[in-house]
Design a protein that fits this description.
This protein is 20% helix and 31% strand. It is of the alpha/beta class. The chain has a domain at 6-100: Translation factors (Elongation Factor Tu (Ef-tu), domain 3). The chain starts with 5 loop residues before the first strand and ends in a 31-residue tail after the last strand.
């Protein structure tokens, strides 16, 4: 099957509340059969007569190409566009494009994989887990959030993972603490060989640091950054740029949607996300002003 994304009209099967989030299942066979873990969908919002022109880019929780071609996304109601999506009902139709973006890179041989998630973004790890298990990899989950209601998929992780650790800031579910605090212990207990992560940008930054401290490669999905900044989902609008080191050590601005959303964690300049560093290739230069002059 071609990896080329498609734009299609999808039928809503269900929309349900899951803790603090919404899970929507769509019938979209052409998208389901092309999907690879880590890719995302760009959904049009607001209907035919809406003034909301920008799509919403959402990660994918589950795909069932053999059961009518369904695809499920998980999202938080944070703006008028996502509120409109949450209000859809069975048999409603919406326009979507996908699957978009670069997927997770998969190990060639069976290895021990640590999947780290936070918030609704952690939903994207479950399609990855299914694929890794089919490759005979061990799959260990570490999920976190401010409260238990903001940790998505903890029960599913416990059911399908070789192990599952849940941490919350307030201790309402699992252990009290943060993902960064729990990671060293989980890495040691699971013998992790590689780290995959998806969630808030602050979580990805800490996950990358801890993985690097333990000499582990990390792949991170910058979906939250993509959802907050992207306007098109296909790399044309250039609103979701972030700085990354290249193989040559030079910083370049890359598009979270087209060059990601999955990126090498150790290559992202996390402290400069949301800016254009002065030393990035092609960055604007300050005007040179002669002594006594003014710009």
């Amino acid at each position: 099957m071609s990896d080329t994304p498609v734009q299609t009209s999808a039928t809503v099967l269900t929309v349900r509340q899951v803790q603090d989030y919404h899970a929507m299942t769509l019938v979209a066979p052409a998208v389901a059969e092309r999907f690879r873990p880590g890719q995302f969908l760009a959904l049009a919002v607001g209907g035919a007569h809406s003034s909301r022109l920008l799509r919403r880019c959402l990660g994918v929780y589950e795909v069932k190409p053999d059961y009518g071609g369904t695809i499920e996304v998980v999202f938080e109601d944070t703006d008028p566009g996502t509120a409109w999506l949450a209000g859809l009902r069975s048999r409603d139709r919406l326009d979507l494009a996908g699957p978009l973006g670069r997927p997770f890179r998969l190990p060639r041989d069976p290895v021990h994989c640590l999947l780290v998630g936070g918030g609704a973004g952690g939903a994207a790890l479950f399609a990855l887990a299914d694929t890794l298990r089919r490759r005979d990899c061990q799959v260990h989950f570490l999920l976190g959030g401010p409260t238990g209601r903001q940790v998505f998929g903890s029960r599913t992780a416990q059911r399908i993972g070789d192990s599952a650790t849940v941490v919350t800031d307030d201790g309402s579910t699992g252990e009290r603490g943060t993902v960064a605090e729990a990671m060293p212990r989980v890495i040691a207990a699971t013998g992790a060989d590689v780290v995959y992560a998806c969630g808030p940008t602050t979580l990805l930054r800490s996950v990358t640091r801890v993985a690097g401290d333990h000499g582990l490669p990390s792949q991170v999905s910058v979906q939250e950054f993509l959802q907050q900044t992207a306007a098109c989902g296909i790399g044309s609008c250039l609103t979701c740029m972030l700085p990354m080191y290249g193989d040559d050590g030079v910083t370049r601005m890359v598009r979270a949607c087209a060059d990601g959303p999955v990126l090498r964690g150790d290559r992202v300049r996390w402290g400069d996300v949301g800016t254009i560093p002065f030393d990035a290739l092609g960055a604007p230069r300050a005007l040179s002003v002669p002594d006594g002059g003014s710009a």
